[in-house]
Amino acid sequence: MLSLVTGASGFLGSHLVQELILNDYSVKALVRQSSNIRFLEKVPSLQIQYGNLGDFSSLKRATFNIEVIFHNASLVKEWGPYDIFREHNIIGTQNILEAARINDVKKIIFTGSAAIYQQKNSKLEEEADKNPLNNYQKSKLQAEQIIRDFCGKYGIAHTIIRPPGILGPRNNYIPPRMINALSKKKVQIIGSGNQKHSYVDVRDAAECLRLACEKQQAIGETFNISSYVATVESFWKIGAKILGKTALKFQRYPYWLAYGFAILSEIWGKIVQRKTVPSATRFRVSYFGKSFVLDSTKAKDILDFQPKFDLETSMKDMFDWWFTR
Question: What CATH code is carried by the domain that includes residue 167?
Answer without folding.
Answer: 3.40.50.720
